[in-house]
Amino acid sequence: MHFPTNSSWYPILIDEFNSPYFLALQEKVTQAYLLSDPVVFPPQDQLFKAFEYCPWEQLRVVVLGQDPYPTKGHAHGLCFSVATGVKPLPKSLHNIFKERTSDLQLPDLPNGNLEIWARQGVLLLNSVLTVFEGQADSHKNWGWEQFTDAVIEKIASEKENIVFILWGAKAQAKASRIDSSKHLILKAVHPSPLAAHRGFFGSKPFSKTNAFLRMLGKQEIQW
Questions:
Q1: d(Cα 6, Cα 28) in Å, to the nearest integer?
Q2: Which of 46, 77, 117, 180 is the most interior residue, by most CB within 10 Å?
Q3: pLDDT tens digits, residue range 15-32?
Q4: Which residues are catalytic, by number?
Q5: SS3 (DSSP) at 132
């Protein structure tokens, strides 16, 4: 497990990569991939895709999830996203698309691969970046939370006018690391079937994000 040194994020996060907690995390995750029983998702070469598809200098929006899908073939390094061709869509993603259709009056996207969002400056980041197959939240407290806290803090302190979309309690816990006078924070319950009807549906995150970007004279996200 190695963060790509040619990434625009690398110099921003260099202190994290050299810190004891990250070195311990790196060793633990590397060993988990090597053992391969249980299988770790996403595949190791897709672990940092969120940063690859959304360079530091292009960042405009952060969508924060919980941890990768634990179902084989689903997780590919972008929160809530699945690889092209995966059907049926995970229920959380289905609900995100349902809210997108209601909010923007747009037809469904052709598949569940959200790379098209990421490449427009949307960081699709999970709080925890790995998971064992079939065991949701199984890499909790391995050290990923400290790393993604640092990512959020770096963005919040060094950027201005970023939209942070925080879905679910774990994502919302990071709100304390964001200065709301410098950034727009949009909170809602998690889009899972267990929670979506308690305030995710009708939260209009897509139109609110674009209204904020429009107000700043920035290009809107083609959701």
A1: 23
A2: 77
A3: 999 999 999 999 999 999
A4: 67
A5: strand
